[in-house]
């Protein structure tokens, strides 16, 4: 890539869509967030995204960036399939059978790469974030849904037909029966998504708290908050134990809105993890927070895909 070449990284989430404009070195030049519409045709939404990106480019031109040329768009969405270029079924978006890569290439008139959103976040953290010096880690995003991306031997592992790495749908043993957005029972996502955590809070204390309030009360050592954190940390650690014995990762990196609970939450999860995990892994796996802010990993990963392709 030359200095006048730029790439867009886009992350289509269940609630918001994030757009980042990056230069050849991975510097984020411009960032904006727009709500993801609930009932809009995907093709119309991608057209709206293309218009947003035009506005961003126009405003960056005003900042004297020269005459930037878009070399590609790297976009993430839940259930986006790198190999087929499609999103066949994404309950958190209400999308079925969407040819996402084709839509991006038509509307943006440039090369596009699409990828599962959590995979992209893992790629971003691996290239520029908390996983920069790690060869084996699991990135887990706790947000509207729960996603995961696997970096094995320094490379993104997608599995057969890009169907691997869906750690949010690992079943955790539980006395409750809670339905996941996918229709399954007692998946990690049904307890650790923002919605799942809020449901747990209500079940435990009979009040409606936001994740932010939970974080504030936990910092203030509120006993009810400590009980809630203990409960959700145990649920997350139980899921991590299943993933860890299979992969032997150096670390779990937590991203997504819930990661704002921060390091004190990670420490509770780690304590539970070390209690539950196979002896061979005790004390050997770190639990850290994503460093490309809680919500920018996937847009960095989208840019990383494009930059790596253009350079290679
Ligand atoms: Zn599920």
What can you see in these coordinates?
The chain is an alpha/beta fold and 312 residues long. It folds into two domains: 5-122 and 295-311, Nucleotidyltransferase, domain 5 (2-Layer Sandwich), CATH 3.30.420; 134-289, ATPase, nucleotide binding domain (Nucleotidyltransferase, domain 5), CATH 3.30.420.40. Helices cover 39% and strands 24% of the residues. The protein has nine helices and 13 strands. The strands form three sheets. It has a five-stranded mixed sheet with strand order 3-2-1-4-8, with helices on both faces. The chain starts with a strand and ends with a helix. The model has no long low-confidence stretch (mean pLDDT 92). The chain binds zinc ion. Zinc ion (ZN) is lined by residues 169, 180, 182, 184, 187, 189.
CATH superfamily of the largest domain: ATPase, nucleotide binding domain
Q: Judging by the overall fold, what is the CATH architecture of the largest domain?
A: 2-Layer Sandwich
| Average pLDDT figure | 92
Total strands: the figure is 13
Number of contiguous helices = 9
Strand proportion, as a percent range, falls in: 15-25%
Structural class: alpha/beta
- Ligands bound to this protein structure: zinc ion
Cα end-to-end separation? 10 Å
Helix and strand run: EEEHEEEEHEHEEEHHHHEHEH
Global geometry: globular
Rg from alpha-carbon coordinates: 19 Å
Unreliable segments (pLDDT under 50, ≥5 consecutive)? Answer: none
Number of domains: 2
Strand order across the largest sheet: 3-2-1-4-8
Q: Mind summarizing the main beta sheet?
A: 5 strands, mixed
CATH topological fold name of the largest domain: Nucleotidyltransferase, domain 5
CATH class of the largest domain: Alpha Beta
